[in-house]
Amino acid sequence: MAKLLECALNFSEGRREGVINDVAGAAQGVRVLDVSSDEDHNRTVLTFVGLPEAVAEAAFDVSAKAVELIDMNRHRGEHPRMGAVDVVPFVPVGEARMEEAIATARRVGQRLGEELGIPVYLYEEAATCPERRNLADVRRGQYEGLPEKLAAPEWKPDFGPDHPHPTAGATAVGARIYLVAYNVNLGTSQMEIAKAIARAVRARTGGLRNVKALGVTLKERNLVQVTMNVVDPFHTPLYRVMELVRTESARYGVPVVGSEIVGLVPLSVILDSVRYYLQLEDFGDDQVLEARLWGEQ
Amino acid sequence: MAKLLECALNFSEGRREGVINDVAGAAQGVRVLDVSSDEDHNRTVLTFVGLPEAVAEAAFDVSAKAVELIDMNRHRGEHPRMGAVDVVPFVPVGEARMEEAIATARRVGQRLGEELGIPVYLYEEAATCPERRNLADVRRGQYEGLPEKLAAPEWKPDFGPDHPHPTAGATAVGARIYLVAYNVNLGTSQMEIAKAIARAVRARTGGLRNVKALGVTLKERNLVQVTMNVVDPFHTPLYRVMELVRTESARYGVPVVGSEIVGLVPLSVILDSVRYYLQLEDFGDDQVLEARLWGEQ
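ok -> C-alpha cells follow
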C-alpha cells in the first residue's frame, strides 16, 4: 500500500446538519471515509485518507470552514472540547511512517496558527514537551478555561496567538498510531455509575493501559455511556476493554446494553476480538476472503 | 467486483507434503487463496478463485493430478471420504450468480466422468434430484461402500462409469453459497462426548439449522473435535454455533480449548460474530478501514 495518512478531524458540531455538511464538504482531493456525528456529544468525527500533502490541505480547509461556522460561545455538548476544530490527529496508514505524520502535524498546526489566528497545541507524537503529549491535559479547562490557560507561561501555544480566538477557541494537532473510539452504553440513567466505571477502566486511575474513558449522558435514550479512546488497540484489544466494563458494571447490577465503534477500525483490531471470543487457534488476517481478494491487487 | 467463482476443492491427502504440493500446484491461471491440510483428517482443502472458465480448467487439472497420485485403497483418515478428489464445490463470489456456479459444476463433472473415468455425483444446488442435494447422503458408505452404492439403480452417477475407479473412488461436484468449515476442539479424549455434542448441534438430529457436524479424534493432541460445516453462515452465525457447543459441552464438564476456521471466510461472517460479542449497535461492514480503502479501488 502507498504512504498514506489518515486524519480523524474532530469538530464541535453534531446537531445542525447543514453546518456538518458544509464543514465536511470542505475536504477535497482526499477520500472521505466516514462522517460520524453525535448529538449528545455535539461533535463530529470526519475521517479522510490520502497522500500526505492532500491530507494536509484538506485538514486546513475543513478547519477554516469550521472556524467560520461554529461559535464556541454557544456550544454545549457532553464531550470535552476546547475549539470549533477540537482535535486534528494524523495517523500513518499503509507504508507511511510516524515521521511523515509528525511533520504534517507541524505544518498544519503552523497554518492554523498563522492563517486562522487559532492557538495551537501539538500533542501525542508531535508534542513539544512531555506535559503536552496527553490530549486530556492539553484540553483541561475546555473552551471556557482558555483565557486562564493561555495566560499561563507553561501553556504558551506551539503556534498562533497566546490569547483565545473570539469564537473558535484553541485546537490540538498531533500524530499518533491508530486509535479506536469505543463507547459502551449502560442500562441505567445514573451518571455516577458511568463515572465510576470510567474511573475503573481508564489507565490513569488504575485501569487498562492505553484506555482513556469518561462517563457521559445519552439524554435521548435515558442511558449513560462510558466513552473511551483505546489509544493502542493493537496491544490493548477491544475485548479486554469490554470484559472489564462488564465486570465493573456487574457490581452495580447494571447491564451493558450496547456499544459502538466510532469511525473506522483496522481489520486486525476486529480480528483480535473475534479470535478471543471464538477461541480461534492460528487464524490469520489473510483468512478473510476480501483481504485476500483486495490485498493482492 | 467481477463475476468470480471460488472453488474449495477437497482432496484426500493431508500428510505427504510432496503429494499435497504436486496436487495443489496443478492449479494454474487462478489465484490460490489457501491450502489447508489436516493430518488427522488426512485431507486438504485447496481454495482458489478466478473467472469461471479459468476456475473450471484449474479444478480439472488439480483433480487429474490427485487421481494420478492418490490411491484410496491405502487411504486412512478421520474425515469421511469417497474419492481421491472428494468434493469439488463452486461458489459464486462478487457479482457472479448461482447459475454460473451450477453450469460450471456440470461442465467439470462431465469432464471428470468422461476424461478421468471417475463416477461423479452432482450435489447441493447442482443436484439432479432431491436425494442428492446433501453431501452426507451422497458420500454415505464412503470409499469402501462404493461397489455396493454404484450397483444400486437409485445411485447411478450423474457422469462417468457406474463402477468404482480402481484407485480414485468417486467425486461429488456441486454449487453452493459460501460455507464455513469450523472445527471446535474439546478438552477431552473421549470420542463419545464429541459425538454427543455433534448430535446436539447438527441440524439433522435436533440442533441448529445449517449446521453439519461430526465428532473426530485429534490423535496427536489427545483431544476430540467437533468438525462442522456451517452451510449458511449468513443466517446461522458462528457465534451461535460456538455458544451452543459451549452449552452442550458444559454438561460433561468439558471445556472448549480452541477452534479453527479452515480456509477463508467472508468479512461479513466475522463481523456478525464481533457484533454479537461486543454488543455493537449499527456497526457497518464498511467501518473496517481496509474494506473502505480496497473496496473503492
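The longest helix of chain B spans residues 98-116.
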